[in-house]
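Supplementary Methods S3. Input chains for the assembly prediction are listed below.
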Amino acid sequence: MSTELARRIADHVEEIADFPKPGLRFRDITPILQDAELFGDVVDAFAEEFKDREIDLICGIEARGFLFSAALAYRLQMGMIPIRWPGKLPPETQRTVFELEYGFDALEVHRAAFAGGKSVLLVDDLLATGATMRACVDLVRQAGGKVIAGAVVVEIPTLEGREKLKDMEIHALASL
Amino acid sequence: MSTELARRIADHVEEIADFPKPGLRFRDITPILQDAELFGDVVDAFAEEFKDREIDLICGIEARGFLFSAALAYRLQMGMIPIRWPGKLPPETQRTVFELEYGFDALEVHRAAFAGGKSVLLVDDLLATGATMRACVDLVRQAGGKVIAGAVVVEIPTLEGREKLKDMEIHALASL
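Predicted structure tokens for the full assembly:
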């Protein structure tokens, strides 16, 4: 983790109390996107970390994960697969349902995307409780893919997301 | 419009009947993303078209617009602003409500993003009826921004989306 990049990222995350539910704290990462130089440096830092790894596809997690995964796929000249909320990916999908801090959620992915055991890098903006990343790892594996690592811009270590992801590599550019 | 790129794009859009509602035809653009070379060529074609224009920010429309807008923002070294479905962008947003083929929808954007009259390129995957792009143009203008153009990967001319967008430039890479 580059200390200087980590500091710049942390400076560009805004905390909003009691959103989306009372008692939760929302982290707004949009200031990172708005700063062209920082956004570029984030994508380049991911690229530097993963450019020599055996990766077939970048998987982005809806919706903010799309922002970083698409730019990284472009940078690394790799294909990209979106993992989406239900009902967005006709026709043949694999689905997983999982628990969040505020209820349940579900995610889907095109089953055929991982045919032949594709190696996948999962990308999201934030690692909080780890529930979403855990669900995506299981989803990709159920669909026949191999998860190489999970890459996130920011992690919140106090929420202990890595506890749910002990069977895989997690790469975070900054901690909050 | 490059004929060869347009043909490759069209070959990578799958039509799915009666989705998301009976009578509608869904266009699945995920095969474009999955083809690393084509995805790169799409982003480069947008970059070539807009690199010398006076643009301050790239605006991506949730959710598939995020995929192309984020890669383009990275490529052009510009900041990116997400236009999102309601309730995703705390705290201070500008909202618009608009009619779609299957009911109403709403979009929001951070009001402060356009302070000082920023010039904006709007990016989405698909131009169909034009309702979403129209809503985004109005939203950006209400928030104080100036819309330079709308860029879409694919347009469907039979749905006459450009009729709703006569007051602006639309750049499409392919037609279906």
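Chain B touches chain A at residues 16, 19-20, 26, 28, 30, 33-37, 39-40, 43, 57, 60, 62-64, 66-68, 70-71, 73-75, 77-82, 84, 87-91, 110, 113 (CB under 8 Å). Chain B has five helices and nine strands.
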